[in-house]
Protein backbone atom coordinates (compact mmCIF):
# COMPACT_ATOMS: atom_id res chain seq x y z
CA UNK A 1 0.00 0.00 0.00
CA UNK A 2 1.21 3.48 -0.83
CA UNK A 3 1.55 6.03 1.94
CA UNK A 4 -0.29 9.32 1.69
CA UNK A 5 2.11 12.19 1.10
CA UNK A 6 2.45 14.58 3.97
CA UNK A 7 3.90 17.81 2.58
CA UNK A 8 6.30 19.05 5.25
CA UNK A 9 8.30 21.45 3.11
CA UNK A 10 8.56 25.11 4.16
CA UNK A 11 5.65 26.06 1.93
CA UNK A 12 3.20 25.14 0.65
CA UNK A 13 2.27 23.68 4.03
CA UNK A 14 -0.61 21.25 4.66
CA UNK A 15 -3.97 22.82 3.78
CA UNK A 16 -6.71 21.67 6.15
CA UNK A 17 -10.05 20.44 4.82
CA UNK A 18 -12.07 23.51 5.79
CA UNK A 19 -9.67 25.73 3.82
CA UNK A 20 -9.68 23.34 0.85
CA UNK A 21 -13.47 23.47 0.87
CA UNK A 22 -13.37 27.23 0.34
CA UNK A 23 -11.28 26.71 -2.78
CA UNK A 24 -13.78 24.15 -4.06
CA UNK A 25 -16.74 26.54 -3.80
CA UNK A 26 -18.50 27.78 -6.89
CA UNK A 27 -16.77 30.98 -7.96
CA UNK A 28 -18.95 34.09 -7.87
CA UNK A 29 -18.67 37.51 -9.49
CA UNK A 30 -16.10 39.68 -7.75
CA UNK A 31 -18.85 42.25 -7.28
CA UNK A 32 -21.13 39.74 -5.54
CA UNK A 33 -22.30 41.47 -2.34
CA UNK A 34 -21.50 38.44 -0.17
CA UNK A 35 -17.99 38.19 -1.58
CA UNK A 36 -17.43 41.93 -1.18
CA UNK A 37 -18.40 41.60 2.47
CA UNK A 38 -16.03 38.62 2.93
CA UNK A 39 -13.13 40.46 1.27
CA UNK A 40 -13.73 43.50 3.48
CA UNK A 41 -13.66 41.28 6.56
CA UNK A 42 -10.35 39.73 5.45
CA UNK A 43 -8.74 43.16 5.14
CA UNK A 44 -10.12 44.25 8.52
CA UNK A 45 -8.94 41.06 10.23
CA UNK A 46 -5.42 41.39 8.81
CA UNK A 47 -5.12 44.93 10.18
CA UNK A 48 -6.50 43.81 13.56
CA UNK A 49 -4.35 40.71 13.95
CA UNK A 50 -1.11 42.35 12.86
CA UNK A 51 -2.07 45.60 14.54
CA UNK A 52 -1.74 48.49 12.18
CA UNK A 53 -3.63 51.72 11.64
CA UNK A 54 -2.32 51.56 8.07
CA UNK A 55 -3.56 49.39 5.22
CA UNK A 56 -3.63 45.73 4.24
CA UNK A 57 -3.32 44.58 0.64
CA UNK A 58 -4.22 41.14 -0.69
CA UNK A 59 -3.49 40.58 -4.37
CA UNK A 60 -2.93 37.59 -6.63
CA UNK A 61 0.75 36.75 -6.65
CA UNK A 62 3.41 35.07 -4.55
CA UNK A 63 5.67 36.13 -1.72
CA UNK A 64 8.18 37.47 -4.21
CA UNK A 65 5.59 39.81 -5.69
CA UNK A 66 4.85 40.98 -2.14
CA UNK A 67 8.59 41.65 -1.67
CA UNK A 68 8.54 43.78 -4.79
CA UNK A 69 5.36 45.58 -3.74
CA UNK A 70 6.85 46.25 -0.33
CA UNK A 71 9.90 48.10 -1.59
CA UNK A 72 8.47 49.69 -4.77
CA UNK A 73 5.98 51.83 -2.86
CA UNK A 74 8.42 53.45 -0.45
CA UNK A 75 11.48 54.10 -2.60
CA UNK A 76 12.53 55.71 -5.84
CA UNK A 77 15.65 55.45 -7.94
CA UNK A 78 18.95 56.27 -6.22
CA UNK A 79 17.57 56.02 -2.68
CA UNK A 80 19.95 54.34 -0.25
CA UNK A 81 18.64 51.03 1.06
CA UNK A 82 20.16 48.65 3.59
CA UNK A 83 19.54 44.92 3.18
CA UNK A 84 20.14 42.66 6.18
CA UNK A 85 20.67 39.15 4.82
CA UNK A 86 20.63 35.92 6.78
CA UNK A 87 20.59 33.76 3.67
CA UNK A 88 19.06 33.10 0.27
CA UNK A 89 15.89 35.16 0.71
CA UNK A 90 17.76 38.09 2.22
CA UNK A 91 19.99 38.03 -0.84
CA UNK A 92 16.91 38.02 -3.07
CA UNK A 93 16.14 41.55 -1.83
CA UNK A 94 19.59 42.69 -2.99
CA UNK A 95 18.99 41.93 -6.66
CA UNK A 96 15.39 43.07 -6.45
CA UNK A 97 16.44 46.48 -5.07
CA UNK A 98 19.36 46.85 -7.48
CA UNK A 99 17.06 46.26 -10.46
CA UNK A 100 14.94 49.15 -9.23
CA UNK A 101 17.96 51.43 -9.36
CA UNK A 102 18.31 51.66 -5.60
CA UNK A 103 21.73 52.05 -4.00
CA UNK A 104 22.06 48.93 -1.94
CA UNK A 105 24.33 48.20 0.99
CA UNK A 106 24.27 44.72 2.44
CA UNK A 107 24.96 43.34 5.91
CA UNK A 108 25.39 39.60 5.64
CA UNK A 109 25.82 36.94 8.28
CA UNK A 110 27.46 33.56 8.07
CA UNK A 111 24.63 31.07 7.29
CA UNK A 112 23.14 29.87 10.57
CA UNK A 113 23.96 33.04 12.51
CA UNK A 114 22.52 36.55 12.70
CA UNK A 115 23.89 39.98 11.90
CA UNK A 116 24.29 41.50 15.40
CA UNK A 117 21.79 44.27 16.09
CA UNK A 118 24.61 46.65 17.12
CA UNK A 119 26.11 46.24 13.67
CA UNK A 120 22.81 47.22 12.09
CA UNK A 121 22.62 50.32 14.29
CA UNK A 122 26.16 51.31 13.43
CA UNK A 123 25.48 50.95 9.71
CA UNK A 124 22.26 52.97 9.88
CA UNK A 125 24.26 55.90 11.28
CA UNK A 126 26.49 55.98 8.19
CA UNK A 127 23.94 57.20 5.63
CA UNK A 128 20.42 58.47 5.29
CA UNK A 129 18.94 55.08 4.44
CA UNK A 130 15.37 55.41 3.21
CA UNK A 131 14.60 51.77 3.93
CA UNK A 132 16.03 48.70 5.56
CA UNK A 133 14.87 45.18 4.69
CA UNK A 134 15.01 42.29 7.14
CA UNK A 135 13.95 38.70 6.50
CA UNK A 136 12.12 37.62 9.65
CA UNK A 137 12.79 33.94 9.10
CA UNK A 138 15.21 33.07 6.34
CA UNK A 139 13.97 29.77 4.98
CA UNK A 140 17.40 28.83 3.68
CA UNK A 141 19.00 28.85 7.13
CA UNK A 142 16.19 28.54 9.69
CA UNK A 143 17.38 31.72 11.36
CA UNK A 144 14.87 34.04 12.98
CA UNK A 145 15.97 37.68 13.10
CA UNK A 146 15.59 39.46 16.47
CA UNK A 147 12.86 41.61 14.97
CA UNK A 148 11.62 43.34 18.12
CA UNK A 149 15.15 44.60 18.86
CA UNK A 150 15.75 45.63 15.27
CA UNK A 151 12.44 47.49 15.29
CA UNK A 152 13.52 49.46 18.38
CA UNK A 153 16.76 50.45 16.67
CA UNK A 154 15.16 51.48 13.39
CA UNK A 155 12.63 53.65 15.29
CA UNK A 156 15.55 55.96 16.14
CA UNK A 157 16.05 56.77 12.46
CA UNK A 158 13.23 59.04 11.33
CA UNK A 159 13.73 58.56 7.56
CA UNK A 160 14.39 54.83 7.56
CA UNK A 161 11.40 52.56 6.97
CA UNK A 162 11.57 48.96 8.14
CA UNK A 163 10.46 46.39 5.55
CA UNK A 164 10.03 42.89 6.93
CA UNK A 165 9.91 39.77 4.76
CA UNK A 166 7.53 37.63 6.77
CA UNK A 167 6.85 35.02 4.11
CA UNK A 168 8.12 32.21 6.35
CA UNK A 169 7.11 33.85 9.63
CA UNK A 170 3.81 35.74 9.53
CA UNK A 171 1.07 33.97 11.53
CA UNK A 172 3.70 31.95 13.45
CA UNK A 173 6.28 34.45 14.77
CA UNK A 174 4.95 37.58 16.53
CA UNK A 175 4.63 40.57 14.22
CA UNK A 176 2.73 43.64 15.38
CA UNK A 177 3.37 46.45 12.95
CA UNK A 178 2.78 49.73 14.73
CA UNK A 179 4.16 48.80 18.15
CA UNK A 180 7.21 46.94 16.81
CA UNK A 181 8.12 49.69 14.35
CA UNK A 182 7.48 47.55 11.28
CA UNK A 183 6.53 49.90 8.44
CA UNK A 184 5.90 47.28 5.77
CA UNK A 185 5.24 43.59 6.32
CA UNK A 186 5.16 41.36 3.28
CA UNK A 187 4.08 37.74 3.20
CA UNK A 188 2.39 35.00 1.18
CA UNK A 189 -0.53 32.63 1.70
CA UNK A 190 1.20 29.25 1.48
CA UNK A 191 3.39 29.17 4.57
CA UNK A 192 2.20 29.79 8.14
CA UNK A 193 -1.29 30.82 6.95
CA UNK A 194 -1.75 27.27 5.65
CA UNK A 195 -3.52 28.41 2.49
CA UNK A 196 -2.63 27.22 -1.04
CA UNK A 197 -0.04 29.33 -2.91
CA UNK A 198 -1.28 32.33 -4.87
CA UNK A 199 -1.77 35.34 -2.60
CA UNK A 200 0.66 38.17 -1.98
CA UNK A 201 -0.18 39.87 1.31
CA UNK A 202 1.26 43.26 2.26
CA UNK A 203 0.61 45.37 5.33
CA UNK A 204 1.72 48.99 5.33
CA UNK A 205 1.85 51.16 8.43
CA UNK A 206 1.02 54.89 8.51
CA UNK A 207 4.60 56.02 7.80
CA UNK A 208 4.82 53.77 4.73
CA UNK A 209 1.53 55.14 3.37
CA UNK A 210 2.77 58.69 3.90
CA UNK A 211 6.00 57.85 2.08
CA UNK A 212 4.02 56.37 -0.82
CA UNK A 213 1.99 59.58 -1.12
CA UNK A 214 5.10 61.74 -1.10
CA UNK A 215 6.57 59.83 -4.07
CA UNK A 216 3.93 60.88 -6.60
CA UNK A 217 3.62 58.52 -9.58
CA UNK A 218 5.79 55.42 -9.28
CA UNK A 219 7.01 53.25 -12.15
CA UNK A 220 5.23 50.09 -11.09
CA UNK A 221 1.60 49.64 -12.02
CA UNK A 222 0.07 46.36 -10.74
CA UNK A 223 1.75 46.66 -7.35
CA UNK A 224 1.09 50.36 -6.75
CA UNK A 225 -0.50 50.96 -3.31
CA UNK A 226 -2.40 53.94 -4.72
CA UNK A 227 -4.13 51.72 -7.31
CA UNK A 228 -5.20 49.20 -4.70
CA UNK A 229 -6.10 51.41 -1.72
CA UNK A 230 -9.57 52.26 -3.07
CA UNK A 231 -10.25 48.52 -3.57
CA UNK A 232 -8.98 47.45 -0.16
CA UNK A 233 -11.19 50.10 1.46
CA UNK A 234 -14.18 49.19 -0.69
CA UNK A 235 -13.82 45.80 -2.43
CA UNK A 236 -16.90 46.51 -4.54
CA UNK A 237 -14.55 48.63 -6.68
CA UNK A 238 -12.36 47.15 -9.42
CA UNK A 239 -8.70 47.39 -10.28
CA UNK A 240 -7.55 43.82 -11.01
CA UNK A 241 -9.76 40.76 -10.60
CA UNK A 242 -9.45 39.41 -7.06
CA UNK A 243 -8.74 35.67 -6.74
CA UNK A 244 -12.16 35.00 -5.24
CA UNK A 245 -11.67 31.43 -4.00
CA UNK A 246 -8.23 32.10 -2.52
CA UNK A 247 -9.60 35.08 -0.63
CA UNK A 248 -12.28 32.83 0.82
CA UNK A 249 -9.56 30.35 1.72
CA UNK A 250 -7.63 33.13 3.48
CA UNK A 251 -10.78 34.15 5.31
CA UNK A 252 -11.14 30.60 6.65
CA UNK A 253 -7.47 30.61 7.66
CA UNK A 254 -8.01 33.87 9.57
CA UNK A 255 -11.10 32.39 11.22
CA UNK A 256 -9.01 29.45 12.43
CA UNK A 257 -6.40 31.91 13.71
CA UNK A 258 -8.94 33.98 15.61
CA UNK A 259 -10.50 30.87 17.09
CA UNK A 260 -7.12 29.67 18.32
CA UNK A 261 -6.06 33.16 19.40
CA UNK A 262 -2.99 34.66 17.77
CA UNK A 263 -0.94 34.61 20.97
CA UNK A 264 -1.82 30.95 21.49
CA UNK A 265 -0.83 30.28 17.92
CA UNK A 266 2.59 31.83 18.52
CA UNK A 267 3.03 29.76 21.69
CA UNK A 268 1.97 26.57 19.92
CA UNK A 269 4.57 27.16 17.25
CA UNK A 270 7.30 27.52 19.87
CA UNK A 271 6.24 24.29 21.57
CA UNK A 272 6.02 22.36 18.30
CA UNK A 273 9.35 23.66 17.03
CA UNK A 274 11.24 22.92 20.21
CA UNK A 275 9.75 19.40 20.36
CA UNK A 276 10.53 18.67 16.70
CA UNK A 277 14.04 20.03 17.07
CA UNK A 278 14.66 17.97 20.22
CA UNK A 279 13.40 14.85 18.43
CA UNK A 280 15.67 15.49 15.43
CA UNK A 281 18.67 15.98 17.70
CA UNK A 282 17.75 12.80 19.57
CA UNK A 283 18.01 10.97 16.24
CA UNK A 284 21.54 12.27 15.75
CA UNK A 285 20.94 15.19 13.40
CA UNK A 286 22.34 18.68 13.98
CA UNK A 287 20.58 21.91 13.17
CA UNK A 288 22.12 24.68 11.12
CA UNK A 289 20.65 27.64 12.99
CA UNK A 290 22.29 28.72 16.23
CA UNK A 291 20.04 27.83 19.15
CA UNK A 292 19.24 31.36 20.37
CA UNK A 293 17.95 32.40 16.96
CA UNK A 294 16.20 29.29 15.77
CA UNK A 295 12.96 29.76 13.85
CA UNK A 296 9.75 28.13 15.00
CA UNK A 297 8.43 27.66 11.48
CA UNK A 298 10.98 25.24 10.10
CA UNK A 299 14.13 23.29 10.89
CA UNK A 300 17.21 23.17 8.70
CA UNK A 301 18.63 19.79 9.43
CA UNK A 302 22.21 18.71 8.67
CA UNK A 303 22.76 15.05 7.75
CA UNK A 304 24.96 12.78 9.82
CA UNK A 305 27.85 11.01 8.09
CA UNK A 306 26.82 8.27 5.70
CA UNK A 307 23.42 9.66 4.75
CA UNK A 308 23.08 10.84 1.17
CA UNK A 309 20.56 13.63 0.49
CA UNK A 310 18.91 12.32 -2.69
CA UNK A 311 18.46 8.85 -1.28
CA UNK A 312 17.24 10.11 2.10
CA UNK A 313 14.55 12.28 0.57
CA UNK A 314 13.49 9.57 -1.89
CA UNK A 315 13.06 6.95 0.84
CA UNK A 316 11.38 9.48 3.14
CA UNK A 317 8.87 10.26 0.37
CA UNK A 318 8.15 6.52 0.09
CA UNK A 319 7.55 6.52 3.81
CA UNK A 320 5.03 9.31 3.24
CA UNK A 321 6.76 12.59 4.06
CA UNK A 322 8.05 15.20 1.64
CA UNK A 323 10.79 17.59 2.79
CA UNK A 324 12.85 20.15 0.89
CA UNK A 325 16.55 20.10 0.07
CA UNK A 326 19.18 22.57 1.20
CA UNK A 327 19.91 25.77 -0.73
CA UNK A 328 23.20 27.33 -1.80
CA UNK A 329 26.29 25.81 -0.20
CA UNK A 330 24.03 23.50 1.83
CA UNK A 331 22.51 21.75 -1.17
CA UNK A 332 23.08 18.02 -0.58
CA UNK A 333 24.12 18.54 3.04
CA UNK A 334 20.84 19.38 4.64
CA UNK A 335 17.08 18.98 4.42
CA UNK A 336 14.50 21.58 5.34
CA UNK A 337 11.47 20.56 7.34
CA UNK A 338 8.50 22.89 7.70
CA UNK A 339 6.42 22.69 10.88
CA UNK A 340 4.20 25.72 10.62
CA UNK A 341 0.59 26.57 10.02
CA UNK A 342 -2.36 24.33 10.70
CA UNK A 343 -0.59 21.09 11.53
CA UNK A 344 -1.41 18.84 14.47
CA UNK A 345 0.09 16.17 16.74
CA UNK A 346 -0.66 13.43 14.16
CA UNK A 347 1.35 15.24 11.48
CA UNK A 348 4.31 15.67 13.81
CA UNK A 349 4.38 12.06 15.02
CA UNK A 350 3.98 10.76 11.46
CA UNK A 351 6.84 12.97 10.29
CA UNK A 352 9.31 11.94 12.97
CA UNK A 353 8.29 8.28 12.62
CA UNK A 354 8.80 8.40 8.84
CA UNK A 355 12.24 9.95 9.38
CA UNK A 356 13.11 7.10 11.78
CA UNK A 357 11.99 4.44 9.28
CA UNK A 358 14.02 6.18 6.60
CA UNK A 359 17.18 6.16 8.71
CA UNK A 360 16.51 2.52 9.54
CA UNK A 361 16.19 1.60 5.88
CA UNK A 362 19.42 3.48 5.18
CA UNK A 363 21.31 1.41 7.76
CA UNK A 364 21.02 3.34 11.04
CA UNK A 365 19.22 0.67 12.99
CA UNK A 366 18.97 1.98 16.56
CA UNK A 367 16.50 4.80 15.94
CA UNK A 368 13.02 3.32 15.87
CA UNK A 369 10.85 4.99 18.51
CA UNK A 370 13.60 7.25 19.79
CA UNK A 371 12.57 10.45 18.07
CA UNK A 372 8.86 9.82 18.53
CA UNK A 373 9.44 9.20 22.24
CA UNK A 374 11.34 12.44 22.61
CA UNK A 375 8.73 14.33 20.63
CA UNK A 376 5.84 13.12 22.78
CA UNK A 377 7.80 13.76 25.95
CA UNK A 378 8.44 17.36 24.90
CA UNK A 379 4.89 17.99 23.72
CA UNK A 380 3.43 16.61 26.93
CA UNK A 381 5.59 18.85 29.13
C1 LIG B 1 9.16 31.38 0.33
C2 LIG B 1 9.80 32.66 0.65
C3 LIG B 1 9.80 33.74 -0.25
C4 LIG B 1 9.29 33.64 -1.65
O1 LIG B 1 7.93 33.41 -1.70
P1 LIG B 1 7.27 32.85 -3.04
O2 LIG B 1 5.83 32.71 -2.67
O3 LIG B 1 7.92 31.56 -3.35
O4 LIG B 1 7.49 33.86 -4.10
C5 LIG B 1 10.37 34.93 0.16
N1 LIG B 1 10.91 35.06 1.38
C6 LIG B 1 10.93 34.04 2.26
C7 LIG B 1 11.54 34.25 3.59
C8 LIG B 1 10.38 32.81 1.92
O5 LIG B 1 10.41 31.80 2.79
TrEMBL record:
Q: What cofactor is this protein dependent on?
A: pyridoxal 5'-phosphate
GO MF annotation: an example: L-serine-pyruvate transaminase activity
Q: Which amino acids does the record list as binding substrate? A: 336
Extract the PROSITE patterns matched here: AA_TRANSFER_CLASS_5
Q: What GO biological process terms does the UniProt entry carry, in alphabetical order? A: glycine biosynthetic process, by transamination of glyoxylate
Q: Which InterPro entries match?
A: Aminotrans_V_dom, Aminotrans_V_PyrdxlP_BS, PyrdxlP-dep_Trfase, PyrdxlP-dep_Trfase_major, PyrdxlP-dep_Trfase_small, SP_NH2Trfase/AEP_transaminase
Q: Where is the Aminotransferase class V domain?
A: 58-327
Question: Does this entry carry the keyword Transferase?
Answer: yes
Q: What does the UniProt keyword field contain?
A: Aminotransferase, Pyridoxal phosphate, Transferase
Keyword Transferase (UniProt): yes
* Sequence positions bearing N6-(pyridoxal phosphate)lysine: 191
- What family is it from? Belongs to the class-V pyridoxal-phosphate-dependent aminotransferase family.
Q: What protein does this entry describe?
A: Aspartate aminotransferase
Q: Which organism is it from?
A: Tepidimicrobium xylanilyticum
Taxonomic lineage of this organism? Bacteria, Bacillati, Bacillota, Tissierellia, Tissierellales
Amino acid sequence: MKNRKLVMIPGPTPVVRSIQDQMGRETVAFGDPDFVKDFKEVIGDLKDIFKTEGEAFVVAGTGTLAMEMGIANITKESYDVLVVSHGFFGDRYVELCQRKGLKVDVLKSEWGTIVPVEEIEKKLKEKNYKAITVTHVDTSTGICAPLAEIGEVVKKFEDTLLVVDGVCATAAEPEYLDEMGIDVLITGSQKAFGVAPGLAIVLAGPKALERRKSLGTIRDYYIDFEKWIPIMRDPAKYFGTPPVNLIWALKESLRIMKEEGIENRYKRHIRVARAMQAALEELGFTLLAEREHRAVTLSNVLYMDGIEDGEFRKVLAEEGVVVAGGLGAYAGKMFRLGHMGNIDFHDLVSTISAIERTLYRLGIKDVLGKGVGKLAEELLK
